[in-house]
Design a protein that fits this description.
Length: 512
């Protein structure tokens, strides 16, 4: 159960002077408090979590304010040259604190006893505080000649407290241009085109949203189970110590999203059809991602670092038809199509991994591959009998009914060098369908979305298809399709309560 309240507000002042200039200041923000508690019952159907009930209780508050000041100049010269220029400064700050605790072993599930003090074991507590700020300078110029030739330029200088002193500030420019072809004289006789515009843009956007406010700083803490030690050797007392809780990285900087696009927009047949087609290329320089470090760093949280560059290329297209059979009935039907290709173009090391699970990482990101590509052992079948095992490459845990892996390097034995890329989570294309219908005072709308051609990892199979993973309810595949000497035409391994490299201990293509 949780309770929370939030207050949001904004106040501004604006003044026009010298006929074409407007100055504006705006201050706004949010403030909130929250409190919640959670009781966890014994889950008898879950063999991994039926030892105890539990209770946790948490509370905290947060606030954020934004102060924006702008000055804008707008004018039209000679009836054809429209110019708008804007300059501004913006500051943002956020702060919050929280506290909580948990405990185990309640002698009853009666709600009247659900406090932290009535548990019997596993007492924990925590508190936290965070603070971050952003300071920005920006400017923008828009120019239009006769509403036919359009140009826009923007530049921002953003500074974030999430980064170290040397990487705190970033400059992000962008440019856009458009040509409204339908306003040219040679288009006057083309009656079925109501509006036709060719456009292009290039810009850089800075990203810092997935970086912890303390990312740049190494931090230390002390807990009895981690850093208290009986340094006097009496076995009756302990001395408080400290350990690294976070490894900071002051060299982490802004992630840069560089986007280039070219498109065409049109309205046709008395505005009955809207059409838009766009080609884009998105480069991510300095992808922010958790650092990859060996286990020797201990339990300290790793910082986010600029770990690589990614490039996506794709096409977005949409078409919408506006229909009105009569004055009471109107409808819109829109189709959206998107396709893109992802490619990692640069990383500091050989690769970096993600997609962690109990059996290891399912994702290895490497130059030349799409982001998020699945990596592991490729299952080429099941061992059918002892003769099949003996004539196949040497493989740990090889037995009839277990997975047979691909010998990728052909050295006659299966080892970690035989892992391959076996899946791509990025879709080949996506489709969307928008439908809006109105009749008099009634209206109806719906949106359908589909993703096609992308692979997924079905990690649920780890729990439902292998008995040593979890001694609970099993899938119909495990019950009815698992390998038997009399049922060899299957891809589901033998049902057995024995964990193995050749079954459930490593990422492989069976999960795809």
């Amino acid at each position: 159960k949780g309770n929370s309240w939030n207050i949001e507000g904004n106040i501004f002042a604006e003044v026009d002077f010298l006929k074409h200039i407007t100055a504006r200041t705006a201050f706004g923000g949010t403030m909130g408090n929250f409190y919640y508690y959670n009781y966890g019952f014994r889950t008898y159907e879950n063999a991994e979590n039926n030892a105890s009930n539990s209770f946790s209780e948490n509370a905290g508050y947060d606030r954020q304010w934004t102060w924006t000041n702008t000055i804008k100049y707008s004018n039209v010269f000679a009836g054809k040259h429209a110019v708008t220029a804007l300059a501004g400064v913006e500051a943002l700050e956020a702060y919050g604190r929280g506290v909580g605790g948990s405990t185990l072993g309640y002698f009853t599930d009666n709600p009247n006893f659900r406090t932290l003090s009535t548990g019997s074991s596993g007492f924990t507590n925590y508190s936290y505080a965070y603070q971050n700020s952003l300071y920005s300078l920006f400017g923008k110029v828009d120019y239009a000649f006769n509403d036919k030739y359009l140009f826009s330029a923007t530049v921002r200088r953003d500074g974030s407290s999430r980064f170290g002193a040397d990487k705190r500030y970033g400059i992000f420019p962008s440019f856009a241009a458009g040509w409204r072809i339908s306003r040219e004289n040679f288009m006057k006789d083309v009656k079925w085109i109501d509006d036709l515009k060719l456009r292009g843009s290039w810009g850089v956007l800075g990203n810092q949203t997935n970086v912890d406010p303390s990312n740049a700083f190494s931090q230390f803490g002390g807990r009895p189970g981690n850093s208290y030690y009986d340094i006097n050797g009496t076995s009756t007392s302990s001395v408080q110590g400290f350990y690294a809780t976070r490894i900071g990285n002051p060299k982490t900087g802004w992630e840069e999203d560089i986007l280039t696009n070219f498109g065409i927009d049109a309205q046709l047949f008395n505005n009955k059809i809207d059409l838009s087609v766009e080609y884009y290329q998105k480069k991510i320089n300095g992808l922010l991602f958790p650092d990859q470090a060996p286990a020797t760093v201990g339990g300290a949280a790793l910082p986010n670092v600029n770990i690589g560059d990614i490039q996506n290329k794709g096409v977005d297209a949409s078409v919408t038809y506006h229909g009105a059979p009569n004055k009471d009935l109107k409808y819109d039907v829109g189709v959206i199509f998107t396709t893109y290709r992802s490619n990692i173009t640069s990383i500091p090391g050989d690769y970096f991994e993600a997609g962690g699970s109990r059996i290891g990482n399912f994702v290895r990101n490497r130059v030349g591959h799409p982001i998020g590509s699945f990596f592991g052992y490729e299952v080429v079948g099941l061992f059918q009998d002892a003769a099949d095992v003996s004539k196949s490459p040497v493989q740990a845990g090889a037995k009839p009914g277990r997975f047979k892996y691909k010998d990728a390097n052909g050295d006659g034995k299966i080892s970690d060098v035989d892992r391959v890329y076996f899946g791509n989570p990025n879709p080949k294309y996506t489709l969307g369908l928008n439908l809006n219908v109105s009749y008099k005072d009634f209206d109806f709308s719906t949106f359908l979305y589909g993703s096609f051609g992308n692979d997924v990892i079905n990690y649920v199979r780890y729990w439902t298809d292998f008995y040593p993973s979890f001694l609970g309810v099993k899938s119909l595949d495990a019950l009815n399709k698992s390998w038997l000497p009399t049922r060899t035409n299957t891809n589901v391994p033998i049902a057995e309560n024995d964990a193995s490299f050749s079954t459930n201990q490593v990422p492989n293509s069976y999960y795809k």
